[in-house]
User: Which sequence fits this backbone?
């Protein structure tokens, strides 16, 4: 999937500074947007985020954020899947409903921002980074890769834009879902409503899948076995739609010597 925790304040704790950060949060969140647009997502400028910012985002109705960078190439920071933020501060914690979808740590500015003129060498390095990140980090786990670009940097020319085009071509070849963050947020909310129940009795495994509050179209239930099975048996047990009124049911023959787990995906 390609698209587009503990949060610490960035300076020492001080009541006056906390009030200033809170005021700054309100000013940033209410920056003007285009007329007629219902803004559901937000991204704070780098190094301008805190507990106050995320809590205020949720209080004014935002449903998702993309401010906490993901870096699994140099070290493990952030998550490659959407996650509801858990804030920890001064010994207390708070779970938010807002969905965090972190962008990759190095954006186009990291490669183009400090140079001017023809950027062929920088573009080659950027393309190598994007493809390695996709192939090594996100694709194996079917994670969410959020790439952020600036028209002033990657959009400057065909040369600087080619790394993003190469990433899109690779994601398409890998059957990736290229979409917007708002679509991912809607998808994740709907996916979370799916309920899987498993019963085993008299050599049979029965899996009930219901859609919770939603009817979910095009859902696949993947079953992975510890011992080798045929591709048809291993990969797809259910492919279709599930409904909130009645469960879709999958029956499997139980056998000794293997374990299985189940993955819901589109």
Assistant:
């Amino acid at each position: 999937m390609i698209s587009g925790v503990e949060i610490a304040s960035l300076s020492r704790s001080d009541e006056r500074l906390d009030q200033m950060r809170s005021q700054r949060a309100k000013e940033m969140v209410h920056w003007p947007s285009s007329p007629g647009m219902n803004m559901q997502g937000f991204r704070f400028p780098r190094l301008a985020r805190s507990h106050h910012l995320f809590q205020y985002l949720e209080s004014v109705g935002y449903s998702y954020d993309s401010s906490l960078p993901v870096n699994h190439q140099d070290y493990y920071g952030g998550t490659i899947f959407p996650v509801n933020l858990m804030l920890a501060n001064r010994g207390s914690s708070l779970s938010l409903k807002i969905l965090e979808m972190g962008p990759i740590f190095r954006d186009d500015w990291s490669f183009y921002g400090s140079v001017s003129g023809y950027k062929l060498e920088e573009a080659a390095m950027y393309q190598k980074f994007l493809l390695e990140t996709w192939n090594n980090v996100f694709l194996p786990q079917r994670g969410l890769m959020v790439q952020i670009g600036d028209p002033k940097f990657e959009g400057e020319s065909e040369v600087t834009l080619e790394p993003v085009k190469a990433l899109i071509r690779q994601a398409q070849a890998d059957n990736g879902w290229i979409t917007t963050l708002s679509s991912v947020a809607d998808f994740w909310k709907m996916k979370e409503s799916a309920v899987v129940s498993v019963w085993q009795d008299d050599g049979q495994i029965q899996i009930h899948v219901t859609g919770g509050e939603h009817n979910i179209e095009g859902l696949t239930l993947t079953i992975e076995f510890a011992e080798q099975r045929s591709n048809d048996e291993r990969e797809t047990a259910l492919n279709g739609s599930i409904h909130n009124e009645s469960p879709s049911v999958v029956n499997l023959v139980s056998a000794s010597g293997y374990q299985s787990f189940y993955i819901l995906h589109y």
In short: The longest strand covers residues 216-225. Residues 193-265 form one domain. Residues 2-17, 229-266 have pLDDT under 50 and may be disordered.
